[in-house]
Amino acid sequence: EDLREWIAQAEKLGEIRHVKGANWQQEIGMASELIQHSDNAPCVMFDEVPGCKKGHRLLVNFFGGTRKNMTLGFPMHYSKLELSQAFLDNYLRELMPIPHQFVETGPVMENVVTGDDIDVTKLPVPQWHEGDGGRYIGTGSYNVTMDPEEKWINVGTYRVMIHDRNTLGFYMSPGKHGRIHRDKWQARNEPMPVAIVIGGDPLTFLVACSEMPYGVCEFDISGGLRGKPVKVVRGKVTGLPVPADAEMVIEGFVQPGKRRPEGPFGEWTGYYASDMREEPVLDIKAICHRNEPIILGSPPHRPPDETTRYRAIARSALIRSNILQAGVPDVRAVWAHEVGGTRMLLGVSIKQRYPGHTKQA
Predict the structure, then answer these.
(1) Neighbouring residues of 150: CB distance < 8 A, sequence distance ≥ 6
(2) Catalytic residues
(3) Beta pairing, strands 43-47 & 16-20
(4) Alpha-helix residue ranges (DSSP H) falling in 23-163
(5) If you average pLDDT over residues 18-34, what whole number do you get?
(6) What share of the chain is helix, strand, coil (3-state, %, to 5)?
(7) Is the pTM of this model over 0.70?
(8) Rounded distance, CA 198 to CA 120, Å?
């Protein structure tokens, strides 16, 4: 249910390795790229990163091996095609959201850092790719925002860069729900409250990086997948809901018109898809974290990587569902290939029944 329970299960599978002393300048980023290209590679916990706070750790490559079966809650022997079919049968066809539930407190509130004590540069955050514009703390994270007019909560994944000890920059693509929220706050000339969950449970992270309908809170989808509500607490300064058992939450406000250069950042295509540009700045007002917190890192690399592996499973299920709904019979399997970015290379297997069946598919 939280990242620590997930790690305990990964330990039982023998799929986690511990590395001490790797530096954030080059070694963690290079190691991350190497292991993410192999589905059988373990996840890695980096500890004792030179120059960083003692006890603070970083986990990378969670969605590989049989860990992906564990994360999605399916038997370990399922192949990726079987995982995709199970995803369709168990999640997409019958999923009912369960509203998140507020509780008074949780482990994430074990430590509350404010004022001059805030310094995100001391966290074990690497430079992931050689040409990145800075250190990106937000790769396996998700941003919690609220629509200022309709008051619904969005949970989305957006890259987050460290500017200095108490400010962050983040990029939201046009059309994304978080960007819609941001534009509304900007139009009202009001500061936007933001809570960034740095070290949530892997399943909620995967939900946050999936396309969900407008107005639907991803916490409620995550609750539906588990069959019980996600327990949340109110952020110390924003009041936004954040998981009670998260490892770390960074809270602050985006002031209208305040911008700084952000990027570039190596993206999932294996290229620098966007250059440096002026993007909004988050002024950090509080950091809440568990004792000896763990940052979840999920940087994009040249595919395949862990993000495209998940998207391959989810989008293969979605595409198969769409083909079946269109009336195409005898579809045996669908795969949105990881190396194609799950968008550009699709395989559809059918048992051919009549001339033109293939073209119909």
Answers:
(1) 215
(2) 267
(3) parallel
(4) 27-36, 67-72, 80-87
(5) 96
(6) 30, 25, 45
(7) yes
(8) 12
